[in-house]
Design goal:
- With 383 residues, this protein is mainly α.
- Helices cover 37% and strands 8% of the residues.
- It has eleven helices and 14 strands.
- The strands form seven sheets. The chain has a two-stranded antiparallel ribbon with strand order 1-2. Strands 3-4 form a two-stranded antiparallel ribbon.
- It is globular.
- The protein binds alpha-D-glucopyranose.
Length: 383
């Protein structure tokens, strides 16, 4: 990576650190609190500079874990009165829902760089086990999410079947708030939602991936067995028509948007053991008429009628998604690894480290800067 980008990322990580609580807000104005998967990615970016705050940030993120293994996606620093309008857990300073458990991967990356992660492995194991047991849907053998926000990709067209009528961001925000109020909590842990009950392919892939990553450090055979079962069931969601893995929902209502061509439907590339599926999925990713853009993979296929390159989760490039696909590509020695890494650096730079950017022009959208983009420092230097 060019030194300039490396220096820019470092300047960003340094200036945005919150020393009082020990974490990096994704963006100081728009997202001032701690978000779970963001902090895992920040820790990975920090570890590239041997920054001790990488470990602090991950420790702070995991500190919100409940005894049963439920880990909220947000911690409010400081606690906020307004959050009481959103969450039943607000009095404890947290949200009611979770997010992709990227801490398994973060722990592995930090361990490989010599950080002492020993104090984190018990809670990380507990967190992943919570998801793979308490959130397991017996009918599918997959993990459920109880709100679109849990996927980390909250406005993707895969949720459009839950949207009343044609997608509009304002209406969707109201619908999301309504669904939030229906989340069912057991001792503070969200376990179900009668209005939103989805086995997301992307989320399941990330659960299994993080379990494998953690087990690479802890050699926990039980965790691997659970992850293997998830991956086997995930394979049943393969859609040969799109070359992606679909979401699955139970219940009487048809949800055609489960098969919408969105990038998270390619995240099983991190874990799939099916060579034919993997080959077809790489093809979909590399196709310029579908996902491949000059500044990185589009969050929604260009071929979809919903595609909007500047819309929030409706087509733009997100740094953490590019990073995850780069991890998949480099582990599998795919020729796409190099162009994915290059596009992450190019897009982060062109967008001045934006939340998401236009796949064709690199123009930044959403909050600027946004911590996910610091992952540009975590892909190899391409000279
Ligand atoms: C948005 C993103 C989510 C992220 C949060 C903070 O809600 O959709 O993935 O964690 O912002 O950056």
């Amino acid at each position: 990576m060019p030194d300039l980008v490396r220096d820019d990322v470092w300047a960003l990580l340094t200036s945005s650190w919150n020393p009082t609580y020990g974490y990096t807000p994704p963006n100081r104005k728009k997202y001032p609190h701690q978000w779970l998967w963001d902090s895992c990615f920040h820790a990975i970016a920090r570890s590239q500079y041997r920054d001790p705050r990488a470990l602090t940030e991950l420790t702070t993120a995991l500190s919100a874990m409940r005894p049963d293994g439920f880990l909220p996606n947000m911690q409010y620093f400081p606690r906020s009165l307004l959050s009481r309008l959103m969450w039943k857990n607000a009095s404890q300073g947290t949200s009611d829902i979770t997010q992709p458990p990227m801490y398994g991967h973060a722990i592995r990356v930090l361990a490989s760089k010599g950080y002492d992660v020993s104090h984190l492995v018990e809670s990380a194991t507990r967190g992943l086990t919570f998801l793979m047991t308490r959130r397991l849907v017996p009918e599918t053998g997959l993990v459920r999410i109880v709100h679109p926000w849990e996927s980390g990709c909250d406005d993707i067209p895969r949720w459009d079947s839950w949207h009343p009528g044609r997608f509009h961001r304002m209406t969707w925000n109201v619908a999301k708030y309504y669904m939030l109020r229906r989340v069912v909590l057991r001792n503070g842990a969200s376990v179900a939602n009668p209005s939103f009950d989805v086995c997301s392919a992307g989320f399941n892939a990330l659960v299994a991936f993080n379990a494998y990553e953690l087990a690479a450090v802890t050699h926990d055979a039980a965790l691997v067995r659970r992850a293997d079962a998830l991956v086997a069931n995930l394979e049943k969601t393969w859609n040969p028509a799109t070359g992606l893995w679909d979401n699955v929902t139970l219940g009487p209502r048809p949800r055609p948007s489960n098969a919408a061509p969105t990038l998270d439907g390619l995240l099983p590339l991190l874990v799939s053991k099916n060579r034919a599926h993997v080959a077809a999925a790489w093809k979909a990713l590399a196709d310029p008429e579908q996902f491949w853009g000059a500044y990185g993979p589009r969050s929604v296929s260009k071929a979809s009628p919903a595609y909007n390159p500047d819309g929030y989760w409706r087509g733009g490039v997100w740094g953490q998604m590019t990073y995850l696909l780069w991890v998949a590509a480099s582990r599998r020695r795919s020729p796409l690894a190099r162009p994915l890494a290059a596009s992450l650096v190019r897009g982060a730079e062109a967008s001045t480290f934006a939340e998401h950017w236009n796949p064709e022009t690199g123009r930044g959208n959403g909050a600027v800067p946004l911590g996910f983009s610091t992952l540009a420092a975590a892909v190899p230097s391409l000279g």
